[in-house]
Every structure is written in C-alpha cells, then in structure tokens.
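Worked example 4.2. Below are the chains of a multi-component assembly; read each line carefully before continuing.
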Amino acid sequence: MGVKPKAERALLVLKDGLVFEGRSFGAPGEAIGEVVFNTSMTGYQEILTDPSYKGQIVTMTYPQIGNYGVNTEDVESGAPYAEGFIVREYLPYNSNWRSHTALGEYLKASGITAIEGIDTRALARHLREKGAQTGIISTVETDPARLLEKARAYPSIDAFDFVKIVSSKEIYTWREDVWRWPEGLSLKEEGAPAAGKKKIIAYDFGIKFNILRSLVRYGFDVTVVPALTPAEEVLEAAPDAVLFSNGPGDPRTTTYAVENAKKLLGKKPVLGICLGHQILGLALGGDIYKLKFGHHGGNHPVMDIRTGKVEITAQNHNYCVDIKSLRGKAVLTHKNLYDGTEEGMMHSELPVMSVQHHPEAGPGPGDASHIFSRFREMID
Amino acid sequence: MPKRTDIEKILIIGSGPIVIGQACEFDYSGTQACKALREEGYKVVLVNSNPATIMTDPEIADATYIEPLTADSLEKILEKERPQAILPTMGGQTALNLAVEMSMKGTLEKLGIELIGARLESIRKAEDRQLFRDSMRNIGLEVPKSVIVFSLEEGLGHIEEIGFPAILRPAFTLGGTGGGVVYNMEEYRELLEKGLKLSLNHQVLVEESVLGWKEYELEVMRDMHDNVVIICSIENFDPMGVHTGDSITVAPAQTLTDKEYQRMRDAAIAIIREIGVDTGGSNIQFALHPETGRMTVIEMNPRVSRSSALASKATGFPIAKIAAKLAVGLALNEIPNSITRETPASFEPAIDYVVTKIPRFAFEKFPEADPQLTTQMKSVGEVMAIGRTFKESLQKAIRSLETGSYGLEPIHMGNDELVSKLKVPNPSRLWAVGEALRQGFSVEKVHRLTMIDPWFIENIKEIIETEEGIQPITDGQYAAYKQGALPASGLFGDNDITGLKGLGFSDRRLAYLTGRTEAEIRQIRKREGLRAVYKMVDTCAAEFKAFTPYLYSTWEKPFYTIGEAPAAQCEAAPSGRKKAIILGSGPNRIGQGIEFDYCCVHAVFALKELGYETIMVNCNPETVSTDYDTADRLYFEPLTIEDVMNIIEVEKPEGVIVQFGGQTPLKLAIPLEREGVRIMGTTPDAIDRAEDRRRFRELLDKLGFRQPQSDTASSVEEALAAAAHIGYPVMVRPSYVLGGRAMEIVYDDEALTGYMQRAVLASPDHPVLIDKYLEDAVEVDVDAVSDGHDVFIGGVMEHIEEAGIHSGDSACSIPPYSLDARTVDEIERQAKALALELGVVGLMNVQFAIKDRDIYILEVNPRASRTVPFVSKATGVPLAKIAAKLMAGITLKELGLASEEAGRRKGPAKKHVAVKEAVFPFDRFNGVDPILGPEMKSTGEVMGIDRNFGLAFAKAQNATRNRIPEAGKIFFSLRDKDKPASVALARRLSEMGFGIVATKGTARHLAQHGIHVESVNKLMESRPNVVDLIKNRELSFIVNTISDARAHKDSYYIRQNALHYGVPYTTTISGARAVVEAIESLKTGAYSIRPIQEYNRH
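Applying the procedure described above to all two chains together yields the following structure tokens:
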C-alpha cells in the first residue's frame, strides 16, 4: 500500500495527429489498433477478454477503472484480446469479495499495454466527431511524431481477417452454465437426451463464453467448432441447430464463413449473433456498411418490432447489415432506438434468426436473453 | 401507444412543509410533474400547504390550493374540482399516505377518481412489511430473516435460523427503547428478556442484522408496456445502519462487477414488476454482504424520492417529469431525451464522472440531541458534487457543505476518541477516517472499525498521503518562484499543481497546507496557465451530442495536435449574450432553506423575461434551481469564491446576483467585488451598512428611528455593567454567528454571568452583543422592493408570537390582525425611508417591534428574506421576480408599482387573510425541548388562507398537524406573568364547551377569577398526574408557558410527552390567544376551499 507507485509515462497518438500524455498501467511496450470507446460503467474484464475487440484499443468512458480488480470467473475467453486499454483513472485497490488480482497486474501478465490519466471524455468526443481511427499507445517511444508515422503506416482494420486468429483451432464441447450467485460458474450435467436437450454446433469466430453459457442455460448440448470448419462437416455431425458467433473485424473478410452459411441455410435452424448476424446477412445476399464509431456499451435501447417492447442491450459492433438489401428474403425484427440501425432479422421462410446486439450480455443487461429461448422454441 | 384521452384533469398532491426526510426534492418533482402533464394537454390541480414552493406559483398549475394536506380538506377539493385521476407519487410519503387514506375511505370510488402512477394495491405491497416480504419470496429474493416472538422460550427456539448478530426490536416501547444488537447467546437471552418485559404486548421482533453490509440503491422506471430501465445506481459510503438520507452516497456503484450489478438490476426489475408499479419510478434498496456477496432487499419506495431527485441530477435524466408522462400512458420510447434531443428516454444513462452526495446536519441547533446516526434520518439538507474521480467529487462535496471545511482537515483527538468516532456513525466520521489514516491506522483497521468499503478508504488515503507530501512554501521559495528563479514544480513536493487540482484540492486547502494565502495559490495557478475546465452532464458519456448546458468543473489534463499548443478541453462554450449569474443557496439548513431557492428561481424567470441569458450556480441536488430546465445554463458547483470565480472567468457575465440565496452568496459579495465582479442590485457597501452595528446605528440616528438599547461586552464585568444601564431583560448573542445561534434572553445577573462564562469565545474582536429585550412587544416583518427611487411594500406581517421568538419560528399574518392603521402606515413609512437611505435596489426585509405603540427597528436585511414566498403567495405579487427586474435596471414606475395607489390597491383592500406557521423537527431528536426562543429551529412552513384571521390560523395549524381542537379538555400550565391574560382565554373556551384543566398554581388563579377548572398534579406530585392525562388522551390541547431556564427543566416532561403522544400544544400565551380565536372562527363557520388563483385575481 501507500501512494500509487510513480508510473511510467505513456503516450497515445491518433492517426489524425492528436496526442495524449498519460501514465502506463499495463505491460510496457506498444499497442496499435483501431481506437474505440465503450460506455459501459461495469464489465471491463469481460470487455478486455471479448475476442471481438481483437485489433482494437478500447477506451472506457467511465473514468474509474480497476475498482473491483479481476477475478477468475468474469472472462469471455481464455485471454484478453483488446490490443490496448485507455482509462481516465486506474485504481489498483480491487475491492470485491471475488477479486483475485489487480487489473494492472493482470494486464502486465497478459502483455496488454494500457494508459491512464488522460482526458478520456475528450477522446470519446473526438472519436464521435471524427470516427474510430487507428491509434498507438507507447510506453517506450517518447517522440509523438514517430508514433504518428507508425499509426499512419498501419493498414486499415477493415483489411484484416482477425477471425482466423481468434477462433479456436480445436473442436470442443462446452458445459459451463451462466454465472449465478452463490454457485458462481458451474458445469451442467452431461446431456441427458431425455431432458429434451438439443444439439447445437457453434461456429467460433471469436465466440464469447457467455454465448456458450447461455446456450447451456437454455438447454443445448454445445459443441464449438473452428471458424474454418466446412459446412459439410457440421452437417455430418447432425446437430439440431447451428450458431454463428460474434467476432472481430469486417465480415466481408470472412468469405469462408459466408460460404459455409450459404450451405447451411435451409438445412439447419441458424442463430446469428453480432458478426454471425452480419455473416448471415452476406450469405443471404445483403449489404454491409460501417458505422462511424460503432456501438460499444450496455445501454442501447432496441425495439422488438413484433411486440413493440424495448430492451436495453449490450452492444459491440462497428458494422451493420443493410436489411433493405434483403427485401423479400429477411425481415427486420429489431431496431436500435438510438440511431435507427438494424438490430435483428428473421428469414422470411427458413428457421433463421439473428441479432446484432448481444443477448448473452457479459457485460451488460440481460434483457434480450429471451432470444435464446425464442430460438430454442423455433427448433422444438 | 398514445396518451390517455379518458382523463382531462389530474390532481397532484404536494409534500407539505419541509421536514427532515421531506425537503425541496418534492418541489422539484412536483413542479416537473405539473409542467409535464400540462405540456401533454391535461388540466392540473395542485394541493400543497407549503407556500415556499415553486409548484404553488399560480402559473404552474391550472388550480392551486394552498390548503392543509388532510383528508378533510382534500375531500373538499376533490368534490369541487372533480378530477378523473390523482397522481400521488410526487409528494413523498405525505402524498402517498393521503392518497391511501382517501382510497381506503372510499372517497375515490365514490367520486370515480383513479390513482395513476401507483395503484393502492402496489402501494400497500411496497409499504406493508409482511406483504413486501411475501412478495420478495415469491420472486426468489431474500429479505433479512426475522421472526416475531412472544416469550423467551420461543425466542431461544428461533435464534438459530436468524443467526448472530441479530437485532431486537421490542414492539410498542417509548422511542424504541429496549432494542439493540446482540452478538452471542448470552447477550441475546439478556436483551430478549428485557425487551419482552418492556414491550406493552410482550412482543419482540428478532431480525437478522445487516449492519455493516454494503448498501446500494437503484432508481428504476417502468412504463405501461412493461419496459423497465434503471436510471442510476448508488453506492453508500456509509454501510447499512445509517439511513440513506444521512449517508454519504456515490453514483454510480463503484465496487460491483458487471455480473453482480446485473444481478441487482435483474432483481430490481423483478421487484418493480412483482409490486406492480405500472408506471413511474421507484427506489429500491439492497444490502450486500461484503465477504459473501449475499444480497437482501431492504425496501422499495413506489414513488419519486430524495434519491430519485439525486439520481436525476446525477444523470441528467429527469425522473419525475418522465414518471408523470408515463402515468398518463406514454411509453418511455415515445418521450425524447431532452439533453440529446435525438434519442428517446427508453435507455439507461451512462455517466462518465463520479457523483458524491454528503448530508448536512443541524445538531448545533439541538445540543441536547444525540448526534449518532441511525436508521432514522436526522440530516436537514445535502450537497452533491460532480468530479471526474471519486477523490475530486468528494473534495468538491466537502467544500460545498459550507461548514467551514475545505478538505479533510485534521481533527485533534486521542486514539480512543478517534476509534469511537469511527465506530459510531456521526456527522464527522468522514474527517475521522482522514485523521485515522493520517495517524497511521491501516486501511484494514479503518475498514474494520467503520465497515466502510476499503475502496473508499484507499481513495481517502491517497488524498491524505498527497497532503503529507506537501511542505510549507517558504517566503524565499515563493519570492524565487515569482522572479522565475524556481519552477512551479518545486513548490509542491512530489506533486505538480495540475495533479493536485485534479485530486479535488481547493486553493484554500492548498494554501493551508503550504502556509500561503488562497490568493497566492490562485496567482501560482494563473501564472501556470491552469484553469478549471467544464464538462457536460449529457446522459450518454459523450456518445451523442448534448444540447443542454448542464456543466461541472474538473481539472482535466491538456492534450494537443502535433505542432499545436496543448490545451485542456472545456465544453462550456459561453455565448456572447447579455447574461447574469444567479448564485444559489447551497445545502438546506435550518435558517436557510427552500425559501431562498424559490427566490433564486424567480430571479432566473425574471431575467429570462428581460432577455438575459441566466446562469445558475448551486450544489443542492434537491432543488428546482438545479433542474437544468430552470436557468439557461446550470453549473453544478460549490459556492466558494474559487469555484464561483472560475465560472465568472469563463462566462464573463454582466453581473452576479447575490441577494436571493441567503447567507451563502451574500458572504461572497465583498470578495467578488474585490475581484472586480459587478454585484447586481444593492451594493455590498449598503449590505454592510445594514449589518455593521455601528454604521447601522448611525443610519437610524440620521433617520430618527428608534432601536432597542444595546451594547457590547467582552467580559462578565462589562456585560453586567451593560445590562445594568440597559435594564433587564436583555437579549444576548455572540457577534460572530448568524441565524440566531446561541442567542438567549436573560432576566438577571446570575443568568447573564452564566451565559458569559459559557460564551468563552467572546473577545474584543468578537464581543457578546447585549440588546434590550422588549418584553411582550409585537413583532412585525416587512418585505419591500426598491429601485433606489421608489419603494413598494410587499407585505406587512404581524407575528403571532411575541418579539424574542426567532422570526423564522413565529407564525405571522398578512395583513396585521391587531395593529391599527396608523401604526401600519408608520411602519411602512419607516421601511420606505430605510430602503431609500440604504439605496436598496432589489429586496429588503425589516423587522420591527411594537411596544406600547412605540416602533422599534430590530433589523434590516437588504436581501431576500424567508418570508418573500409567503408574501408573494398571500398577495399575488411576485416580489422576488420584481426585485430581480429592478436589479436589472427596470423601475417600479415601469412595472406600474411606484404610485401610492398601486401600493394601496394591493394592500389592505384584500378580503382575505393569510397566516404562515412554522414546522419543527423536534420529534426527530430525542430529548430536545420544543420550547421556542431566539434561536431558529424550524425546518419549514405552511400557509393558511381564508376570509378571516381565525380561519386562516386554524388552517395553518391543521396543516402543521398541531391541530386546532374541536372539543375536549384544554390544559394550562403557565408562568405567573401569563396568568392574568389566561383568564379571558379560559373563559371563552369554557363558554364554548371545553373543559379546563390546569396545574395547581394556574388552576388557583383561574378559579379565583370564576373559571370552572379541574386541578391536576404535576409529575412529581401524586398520581394521576398530567402525564397520565396525556397518555390517556384526555387532553386535546396544551398551553404551557415558562419563564426561565430552570422552569424549562421543571416542565420539560409536559412538552416532551405532548410531542411524543401527538397532543397539540403552544408554548406562548399569544399562540394560545390565536388558537382560541381560531376555535371561535371554526365554531361560527367552516373554512372555505379556494384556489390561490382566485384569491389574487386583480
């Protein structure tokens, strides 16, 4: 204890020349990626470990980060995937009964570079006005001009296929249930077919554990397959349904996934979430567009068009499906009430549904979790 | 879904007078609700007995009834107005209870009136302990375990399921005696036995203790389509055991992971659905075990609350306004978010700052009361501060309190005392935490003693350790710095000044820590080009553009574009318009409350009308003034010279208005003027001329007006000499406190000597002031406005209680009810002359005492007074608004108020009487004597208005719950002086059929004068005694007057029992006289119900 140790200096430089001087609180080194901001007030551990953030540096708009440390349960994947982390104030006090380690220690151990002590609100406003853009955090380089050069030389995020990097290389089954008090994370019994369980194969494009946990919760036997798994192999396993998961980057780089989707549509009921939703959109022949600075947070209102009900949703995406381009094939089922963008669709004839937001929450509200039960009903 | 068309007229119930637990937050919510419903095209009828509210302004509702909040008067109003619906969720517990009462009585059904916002069934499910517990179990949520036991055996049998520690609450014992916390079997057995014995029905509630658990609150909203959103989460700094109103609280929750927060959120949503609050907001409280995360539901308020006002200010989401719209059937997504304009209200605010609320207490007013904080609320006000970090917002909140603290100053005490200050929650525990850390207590130890979450303690430790690293700046260093020989970085040890300001340190605290002056610290800051920047409260953490300039200061670090100079980002974007800053009144406290906020809001309205851009600065989250819809721009900031100057430097206003917010802004008048700021209206020099005793005396001498004789004394000898030439009784008070603190009336040398010995701080610089006390004088208050050339008398108020009782605690009447026209004319003439001589531009209040037809001037205050809203409501002339216009250069002539005729027309020609009565918090403080004196103790006020004094007074009394008796026995126990006057009163009462009861001396006197009187024993005499009569509810009114401190003690038990058993009482003979008149008026005719709009139709 004592006064926080004097931290190393760190710099954040954006591609358009903006420079923020702060302190390092993660691993020494450099991080480069697309700088985005997330408005969630809780859930930094889930955010850091969400593979969809591959290629991105995340700015938390909530200024006090680290308050409850990190624990062994609130992970969305095996490791942090964000390229870098930006906060207003890092607090090493990790006060919580489940806390395991201080966030800074965790970032250092995971090799994630992080900067604190900068005006994150000014940064978020800048990104809102100018759009998400490449940025670089460095604890080693002190000359902003050189960092600017690096940022400018860095290719656009749209060009990368991050899915191949983050997807599992192996097939595996998943039995962990969603977190509950006081049990925490627990394993569901091995599938007893009598219990009416359905078999689902989940394509891992960077899948969040909470999707898998939610599937378990809603009565699925879950098998996870790598992103490149051919549709034929999936069909051979004879699942009751297929899930296209969330994941990082531009769906247009994942042509293999789009092709697999085309092959599975009509053969199996399909649920798409986030990137999975976009891949389904492409497979149905639709168009994709990129948002100025994306949706990243836990407070977006989404209307279920059929019921008129509004749900508060977890969001994390930069691209959207233009549902108008799918006229006659799919109908819009969910709409974002902030900016009117498409949040979900359902195929006009086939048992295919998908949402742009995150019904599995983690982090964020679970208002939309009924998407899983609705899907479950669809295949029953 | 469209809004309901089957409703045209809606009645809103206000919360009545300001009391502890119900303050201006309900003026804020009620005003919002009225505006919101009228915006949707509904007719709004409002009932509230509190005239000092914006909601009771005639423009806010279609029909406004300033009438008692009783079933009786509400029924009359409902019958007259025939609304289709009542919205009972805007006026606190008062409104909710009244709505339930009307509903249970069948009145609503009879009249075909519907409750909207919360149905009867939901209110009962939320309020009834057992129903609530059952509901929580239905949805699988825990509540603290409890069991009711009737015997020791039963108790021993159940303790296992409850566990230790357990809380024992015996039923029906005086003031909760016999209860407590037990930690083991032995203590349990002992306390249970005792509790069962003490309880009248041998019943003890044994409850699982959640003391020390983490406490959270969620503000939830639901619409008719079952859409639910959480507006704000709040984490209490003080753990369970301290009422949330008395706790330091922080938004948003700080120490919950997302999983834990979502679990609480899901629970809150399930609760609002289960309780069945169809539309509107609710506040739900949770306790969380710090080591296991076990969560229990504590309670739910199915209405807007103090917490929802705080949440509204903390997030920018106007809960009351939206709740009102939901109540008429609108959906959350059909209502726009007025801050972002483009997005709907169906969302959950994301905030990118930390909000800290600190309560403000008034224990200095009640020295007999125990300052321990418990589950019963005792604070009288609160402040809120916004910062980018907890540390910053905490330090801003501290200096917002105006208790003379500018940071975590040391408190000098030994280890044992410190430990007990930490263990037992009390108003200064925050500073004790700081002190403990300074003395080397570990975070762990402080946590163990206080159960405050270590996260908060660690943050405070950071502040303390930073302070420890700051060394005095020597004169040499400072000189070297000024000459450029020493860089600023050399001045503050390891810290750079930007970092220090970022931690929330005020210039004043830094000055103290470095041994420099505040001005020097400011100079260093300026030299370094360091200034506060302003950020917006935008509901969305910068995700969308915001349009409402609701701002707070912070000290963000600069950034830059390569090749350009670094700068910190400020979002203030001041306009070039003609503008004025209005300084608010800070936290509510006794002596400075809602009346001043009312005046500030009126100043805003008036200046807007004149085309000014209005800028409000205030730090009280309960108020209408801090509604971002009130002024054009809102700065939620502490009212210190530093914070205000920072705003002035950014905004560059034409002037600043300091005369509406009470002492808070007034204190800043001279410092601001010194900084070259223009003070609008009456000059600070004129204010000083009225406040400085010597200058004031010269002023009165010049005008030839009379003043009670006075003198000053710095020692016992001087005091005795002064009293000798003035003559007893005298009023004594220290010169360094305001608001009547430590004022006393003394009748002899002994008492004066005692006072002087207690007033240890008396010194040549701060002498004790000794004034002739005009016994039995009538006190009169005058509120007037002036433009410097003409004066308009707003109202002449005659007090009911005699001079010597603080004017804030006295009832008063407009117009005067006993003074003759000649005296009133002379009072008006003197008030006018004073205003012109002082050069008042704006408001002025004068206090007069009239004794034997002689007029004395007690005090002149060239600023807003507590009575301004009352006068405005009583006469229909909005004095504060007029005053603000005069301050902006408009003349009374231009407003048509200059001529004598205008004054006359608005004055005595009125055919109604308005009476103001004060409301006291005595029931909150065990052991406090409810006697009135020169020190103000009331928290709020009510108004009664009717065609004569008796009826108006009766209404005012009924509105305070000190009900006018209709039958029964009236008890007298009087000091000798009052005995002659009581004869006539007793006779009149007797003639009206009341029984007269009196203690022996009083009874003898009354009997001698032919009154049929029943004599009763005092407490120390044999039984049955007066206390038995009180307990048996045989007395319907108590008149108890006393002469001196000793007599106070002797008769204290009478007032204490009256208070405890809710028997109405008065402690002055003048009060008794008014009560008798009220009874007579009620006997001759019932009171009428009329909206305020009709009373003042010109």
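Take a moment to check your reading of the output against the notes. Chain A touches chain B through 71 residues (CB under 8 Å). Chain A has a mean pLDDT of 95.
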